[in-house]
Amino acid sequence: LFDAILTTLGPPAKAKRQAKRGPRRRALGRPTAFQILVAEDNPTNQKRVVTLLEQHGHRVVLASDGRQALARAAEQVFDLILMDVQMPELSGLEAAAAIREREQGTGRRVPIVALTAHAMTGDRERCLAAGMDGYVSKPLRPDELFAAIEAALSPPAERDAVRSVPPADGPASQSPDADALLAAFGGNGKLLAEVIDLFLADTPRILDEARRALARHDAAALAASAHALKGSIGLFAQTGAYDAARRLESAARAGEQAGIDETFAELDGEVKQLSEDLQAVSRSLRQR
Fold first, then answer.
1. Does the residue 26 lie in any domain?
2. What is the pLDDT confidence band of residue 17, given thresholds at 50, 70 and 90?
3. Domain of 94: which CATH number?
4. Are 29 and 155 in the same domain?
5. At 79, is the secondary structure helix, strand, or coil?
6. Per-residue pLDDT tens for 229-284?
7. H or E element at residue 129
8. Which domain holds residue 244?
């Protein structure tokens, strides 16, 4: 698979010439705007990550799956890649390994930081084995994200000392609190309101996809939908709907049929409740 990908998406001449430069490094005490590729298939997470990076002055290119990420990395030079682990077309692990394969003999190594769900056992080890330089757990928190970026862009000796950022607890209550969510979003009420709106608009579609996958007994599609829901829900809660999505994804991946209809029904109800709660949070934000 990699040989075919590398042959098709080999770096163009311009990228080869630029590769010798290596990524820009930050001068001591002076912030630098970096060119960052974000590979993430979840629209809610896309919105959050891209907005946070742009607010810090970084230039962002977005890829919605692993194959797009591989193509973007061939088209231009990036200072850093943020790579979601579970994506369609080509996983983040496969994309990272292909990028490392393509870099051989060029003298260049772009730092790659994995975006990984801490609930998935073994993700971190697989990320490092695929050639990634670090990882940050979802749901993403601004301080954790930028600490991981800082570590990945540090000299190799410092990078090895800080390969991951320990996950902080996300919003724990089943009913999201506006102040707690605002703090989790770095005090950025505008971003929080926009991400809530995106969640409310996108979640019904993903739920419908999960419902259809369940009806036709498509375990792979059901697991993918549950994973997408878990990623979005995790921005707002770590219990209730999040736990139901996690259990549904786990059951679908394991091919477990017993109780899966009940788990989906639980998820459906929890998502509806979470959506109502987030609508209330959104209204309160707009009244401030």
1. yes
2. very low
3. 3.40.50.2300
4. yes
5. coil
6. 998 998 898 889 999 999 999 999 999 989 999 999 999 999 999 999 999 999 88
7. helix 123-129
8. 178-286
Q: Which of the 8 DSSP states describes residue 255?
A: T
Give the SS3 label for residue 238. Answer: coil
Q: How many domains does the chain have?
A: 2
Domain check: are 95 and 221 in the same one? no
Same domain (yes/no): 14, 152: yes
Please state, in angstroms and rounded to a whole number, the distance separating the CA atoms of residues 74 and 18. Answer: 11
39 vs 24: CA distance, rounded Å: 20
Q: Does 183 lie in the same domain as 140?
A: no
CA–CA separation, 95 and 249 (whole Å)? 23
CB neighbourhood size of 285 (10 A) = 16
Composition of the chain by helix, strand, coil, percent to 5: 55, 10, 35
Average pLDDT, the chain: 83
What element of type H or E holds 76?
A: none
pLDDT tens digit sequence for 51-103: 999 989 999 999 999 999 999 999 999 999 999 988 888 999 999 999 999 99
Query: CA of 95: how far to CAs of 42, 88, 108, 131, in Å?
Result: 17, 11, 16, 10
Question: Would you mind telling me the total number of residues written for the chain in this entry?
Answer: 288
| Dist. CA 176–CA 162, nearest whole Å | 32
Strand 164-165 to strand 80-84: parallel, antiparallel, or no bridges (unpaired)? unpaired
